Amino acid sequence: MRDGYIPGVPCWVDTNQPDPQAAVEFYGGLFGWEFEDMMPPGSPGRYFIARIRGADVAALSSAPEGAPDTAVWNTYVWVEDADETTSKVTEAGGTTLVEPFDVMEAGRMAVFADPEGAAFCVWQAKGQKGAQIVNEPGTLNFNGLNTRDAEASKSFYGSVFGWQTLAMDGGFEMWTLPGYADHLELSDPGLRKRIGEMGVPLEFADVVASINPISPDQGDVPAHWNVTFAVSDADATARKATELGGTVVAQPLDAPWVRTTVIADPAGATFIASQFEPENRALASSTQASASTA
Question: Quick check: 288 pLDDT over 50?
Fold first, then answer.
């Protein structure tokens, strides 16, 4: 179980919902999440922490006043100082959408948009230290930036978080944070060795997110961050999502290392459900085609 992250690593996801109680029913049925409303009695909004085996994995909240009708999943990046990050975002050409503010005793956060308009959050932890379980069914597996200008994104996120990039077979790229593998090795000895045995570059241990180019045939889809949840069976997850009132945006397909599907919840928030499939390692890359849809 994780107990915090290091600066520059995506650490949390939540979704703003027009009907958070309906979202609780959908995601509880889909992933088996259990929920606790963290807002005091009488509060106008709701903030449900989702848990697996008692550990925090994500959250569902009321949509803030003036928010778009369509729900979205939000990516949070761990930082040491949200106010200092605000200055970095401004200097790098980004926009502050919500100035840093305290979230009770949980932490301090802010919301930004990169120069292309992709929104993301930062989290300066106090009592709440991000997702405690990741990379197992029903939990956060990955975050990805969908962009039309990868080079500009590299400059921006490199300046703000110190991210670099790793080119992978198939022509796609990943965000890396130098030194992240050293941190992971402390709690997971032998990580680099296992990655090497999988046949991927050792630098993959430093990966923190993906870069997904938006293709011309996607029309006016804006730049945005997406969220991937791990599942044990992508096909069964797609069927269950439909039964619960969601929509399968992209049918399950095989891609390198995974079988994925893109799903929209009843309020329209999209996410990727990814089933780890080692035997798919040799497939020609189609990961981006599916990831960019979400």
Answer: no
